[in-house]
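Archive transcription. Copying these from loose printouts into the bound notebook so they stop getting lost. Printout 1 of 2:
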Amino acid sequence: MTASDSFAEILLAALALPEDERAMPAGHLLDKLTPPNQKEIEAAWAAEVERRICEIDEGKVETIDGESVTQKLRSKYKMN
């Protein structure tokens, strides 16, 4: 049995799982692909999000709605 055959067999078995169980093997595989410092990366992003929320709440920055940003970019780059 080749690696390709094994992959095909595993894929077919995973696809045969009930829909609500298919994510389980994918999640386990993704866990093995994540960088070893993933927890530190997630913590840094969480701190950054919290910092930005505080800046908004304290009035230090002004938010811009997505539609305005899109219109401005389209105008700047003439994308209609």
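Printout 2 of 2:
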Amino acid sequence: MKQRTKTARGAASLSTPPPSRGARASAGPSKDAQRMALAAAEAGLDKKASEVEIVDVTGKVDYADFLVLMTGHSDRHVAAIAESVDDALGKKGWHSISVEGLPRGEWVLIDFVDVVVHVFQERTRSLYDLDGLWMDARRLAPPDATRGPV
């Protein structure tokens, strides 16, 4: 069995895997993931996103704790919302690992690991119906656009 070499972060070996998401998922979402989802929703609302929903998928999927769904009115609006969300969370120290769909602006997915943000145009959101897919999942109330930052 190969052993990892010592890195700047310290020694790591293949025999001690990192804790799995499944072990934590039974305890509920992390507070950090919840703050991140609320901050993403707030950034979208600041750019006039509509139909903002925060879906708690903890224990239902292994790739995230929250999905943040929002709608823009055009390809440029979707792109502006997505860039604003990515920038706002980056300023708080949460950096996305992937941004998909930005050039077309129909559906942009921003992956923050525990939180996945989906910014749709209205017809694309209706077509894929993630709201309906997660109809039975718990929702968090999005931040009120009139109050202060999260």
